[in-house]
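Hi Y.,

Following your request, here is the sequence exactly as I used it, all 105 residues.
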Amino acid sequence: MIYSDIALDAVLFAVLLDLFVLRSQMMSRGIFWLTYGLILPFQLLTNWWLTSNQIVMYSNAEIIGRRLAGAPIEDLLFGFSLILLTLSAWEFFYRQARKTSKAGL
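Below is the corresponding structure, written out as C-alpha cells. Let me know if you'd prefer a different format.
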C-alpha cells in the first residue's frame, strides 16, 4: 500500500467514524472549517520545515508526485483526518459527559 492509499483510507475512516459512530456530523459545521483553516497554514509551515531540513523524507515512488510546502499533497489528507477525528471525539465525549451529569451520576 502506498502513502497515497493510506492517506485516502485515513480520510474515509475519519469521515465514516464521524458520521456513523460518533455522530457529530462535524463537517457540516462552520466551526470545523474555520478551525481547519486556522490549522492548515501551520501544517504547511511544519511540513516545509521538516522536509527542508530532511528530518522527514518521502520516496517519490510512494506518493502522487505533487508537493506543497515540500511535503506530498497527501499530507493534507492526514491533517484533515486528524482535525476531524479530534473535533468529532471532543464533541462525542462532551455529549457523553453532559448526559452523565444530567442523569445525576
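Helices lie at 3-21, 30-52, 74-102.

Thanks again,
Q.
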